[in-house]
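Board notes, transcribed. Complex of a protein with carboxymethyl coenzyme *A.
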Amino acid sequence: MIQKVEITIDGKTVELPVLEATEGTNVVDVRGLIAEGIYTFDPGFLSTASCESRITYIDGDKGILMYRGYPIEELAENSSHMEVCYLLLCGELPDQAQLSEFVQDIKSRMPVDDQFKHIFDAFSESAHPMSMLCAAVGGLASLYHDGLDIFNAQHRRESALQLIAKIPTLAAMTYRKTIGAKFIDPDPELEYAENFLNMCFGEPGVSSNVSATLASAMDKIFILHADHEQNASTSTVRLAGSTEADPYAAIAAGVAALWGPSHGGANEAVLKMLAEIGDESRVQEFIDRAKDKDDPFKLMGFGHRVYKNFDPRATVMQASCHAVLEEQGIEDEPLLKIAKQLETIAREQDYFIDRKLYPNIDFYSGITLKAMGIPTNMFTVIFAMGRMPGWVAHWDEMLGSPFKIGRPRQLYLGPSKRDYVDINDR
Ligand code: CMC
């Protein structure tokens, strides 16, 4: 096993220790380089471990994803989102009493202050739900900022509970706002996923009639999205949190980072792409565009920065997707036919095989959510709900141990010093 690495620059040799991981790749500790006046260059952090973490492990080549050591397939099969939230936050699976207490803690924090609901008045019905979610999550800081000590573990736990509890309520409000409907309050009798679906699609004052299959599929979507180690939004939460920012503001930064089509926005982009393709006869045309270096078009829902073999979440999601399609009786929907054809062609053609581009979780979650009747612009909001326990667990982990403000350096390629030129002389 490699214990240390030596690098020689300008005739000077620097010895760098190698830190050992419990699973996966060991890392070269480059922290000592700055004292030698040397920086490393790694745009996109492809070769950089930005922190130590004990929460989630991914082996992209083998298609492994584990939360606190438990494989995602086992959690998706046997667990519930509430149990997974507890696991991510506390490090261990709860016993029955711990789980019941946790569920009660979440349920009691789900309602949103009446005054706070007016934050949605500022938005038009055509506003994207993610823009409302960014504002609403950040806005929670206005309710809980005073007296909050982020270096106190109990205070951090309270923030984590508030965020996990309030995200479905706020998410459902963004949807109700877009359809101009009255908000529906959370029902303490309902489980987390059912509660969310009822707050979206129920009738105020009428008992929930959400189907068990849909509630279970939604719970599975939450479990599969709950954490994914140092992805863009989680790294954003850590970076914002490293300034000792308010937790609700740090998480709002994560929500914003998730929005992009290369990250959480991909499930929405999948459906837009399927609609743009429009007909099975045009699938090859879009495949050709995806392969064309001069065309910026990418096949949405394919490829992953880390998974270069298969995405284990996609395998679980694919099965859940078929259960929903069967229950909804829409297996022959035109967009789904296009999706199936894309999946087959992409799996067979050299371009995709050579680059290890497989359907990722967003390919199947987009189709599943569409089949559940969820509007496309809500897809990333649902991803944000699922990812909340991961974000808060990473924020808590960082603040619970010594950390530094995140402050990368750069390779400067701009002009060297030059003199200011008066505007009349330019
Ligand atoms: N369609 C066509 N070509 C692709 C695609 C795609 N979806 N993804 C990657 N490639 C090509 C890329 O052009 C490059 O080709 P070449 O080697 O000839 O230059 C090669 O594959 C390697 O791609 P890359 O851009 O270096 O890969 P990356 O690790 O930087 O990007 C990605 C990963 C997910 C951003 C990218 O695959 C992508 O944009 N996929 C579509 C969007 C998507 O589905 N995103 C959701 C990711 S899963 C959700 C999450 O975890 O956040």
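The longest helix spans residues 153-178. The beta strands are 4-9, 12-19, 27-28, 56-59, 64-67, 70-71.
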